[in-house]
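User: My instructor asked us to take a sequence, write out its structure as tokens, and then describe one feature of it. I'm not sure where to start. Here is the sequence I was given:
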Amino acid sequence: MTEPAEKHAFEYGIDGPKTIMAGVDGSESAWRAAAYAAGLARRQGALLVLVYVQPVLTAGAPAVGGTLLEAGQQVAEELLQYIRDAVKRFGNNDRFRWEFHTFPGDPYTGLVTTADRLKVDAVVVGASEQAGHRIIGSVAVRLVKAGRWPVTVVP
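Assistant: Let's start with the prediction itself. The structure tokens for your sequence are:
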């Protein structure tokens, strides 16, 4: 019997995910997803990446687009402050690593691009609470269908 050319052995400390990404948008389900992802990241010693993609208009008046961009940035700042406060309450900050990324764009495309760029090991998102998503598909369903990472959808 021959030995395999490449032998894989279990290695302590590197068997779990290194980077877990969660999409946040201020909704209740997104906060539950972020909390779930934070718990996973803390237990696994992984980096938690929180991403808020600021929605933009695809068509419309430039003034409206500018107003939406300003509103999106304001929401991003509020989310970041909320996250900082939550991390303080979470405790044990020296072992808990996290990053916050925000930019304007389409939420699905932004999450996919960020996940690919950062080579995340898992994606956690909240379930959509909008009825229309049952017909056209929510961001969560589209991420699952992409099949590029394990995706956890938190209700």
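For the description part of your assignment, you could build on this observation: The two ends are 50 Å apart (CA to CA). Try explaining in your own words what that tells you about the chain.
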